[in-house]
Amino acid sequence: MPARSDRGLRVLVVANQKGGVGKTTTAINLGTALAAVGEKVLLIDSDPQGNASTGLGIGRALRKKTLYDVLMGEQPLLEAVVKTSVPGLDLIPSDPDLSGVELELGQQARRSFKLRDAIAPVRDAGAYTYILIDCPPSLNLLTVNAMAASDAVLVPLQCEFFALEGLTQLMRTIDLVRGSLNPALELQGVVLTMYDRRNSLSEQVASDVRSHFGDAVYQTVIPRNVRVSEAPSFGKPVLVYDLKCSGSQAYLKLAREVVLRERKRRAPQLELS
């Protein structure tokens, strides 16, 4: 599939301030699945822990240029791109230096727009159809930068107790960013993760989330699956580690659903153009 024009680029921030919800796992495997269905994807690792980089097999020695260099204005974003083993999936890696960005940027002008400014040339280049930004499990300057730079927020939500409570706080943050930094920011959708059909609580949480957010919740649910948990330790997305497992098949299904929603979203714009 040829690269689309900048009109087709969709920048999605994968965010949830709670840890352990499958956020990085979703960023890695959705990015891989999108690449598998023909999209050109750039994954930006905006977490100082660098788990997305590690999960794609990019060790510390290979991270010559990172998102830290980009945000500090020392490196254009496209020059920090690292090719992964997945065709069609590139990475901007992270390292622990990112944890100091908030202090180092201090009171600099446009401190909340550093990532948006860095992404602007990428929109013009038309090299990618999706950019996914994996955020830290907190609502700090890195997350604010990601939301200010994005078209929409993709929220992984674990099917466990207190799930909706954390989501309420995240939605409040999205509203604040929309009101002050990025008026066009949308809710791309909610992805239910760690779903266990044997557990009645999973079904109850899924029902509650769907009744609250309606069509914003993807039909695809990501099951609890040991192969999904094992894959990062081998530096591989689960689709590369075990394509046939239920987790891999779920992420492929999610990617198709994401692409279909994007086509429907763009259809009125194309009719008017």
Q: Which series of helices and strands comes N to C?
A: EHEHHEEHHEHEHEHEHHH
Tally of strands: 8
As for the CATH topology, it is Rossmann fold
Number of self-contained structural domains = 1
Rounded to an integer in angstroms, the radius of gyration calculated over CA atoms is 18 Å
Beta-strand level of the residues, as a percent range? 15-25%
Q: How much helicity do the residues have?
A: 40-55%
Whole-number mean pLDDT: 89
Number of helices: 11
Contiguous uncertain segments of 5+ residues: 1-7
Spatial order of the strands in the main sheet?
3-4-2-5-1-6-7-8
Could you name the CATH homologous superfamily? P-loop containing nucleotide triphosphate hydrolases
Could you give the distance between the termini?
Answer: 22 Å
Largest sheet: 8 strands, mixed
Q: Label the structural class.
A: alpha/beta
Outline type: globular
What is the name of the CATH class? Alpha Beta
**What's the CATH architecture?**
3-Layer(aba) Sandwich
Please name the defining characteristics of this protein.
disordered N terminus, 273 residues, 16% strand, globular, 11 helices, eight-stranded mixed β-sheet, Rossmann fold, alpha/beta
Short description:
The chain is an alpha/beta fold. The protein has helices at residues 23-36, 51-55, 67-71, 101-105, 114-125, 141-149, 163-180, 200-213, 226-230, 238-241, 246-272, and strands at 10-14, 41-45, 82-83, 89-92, 130-134, 152-158, 186-195, 217-223.
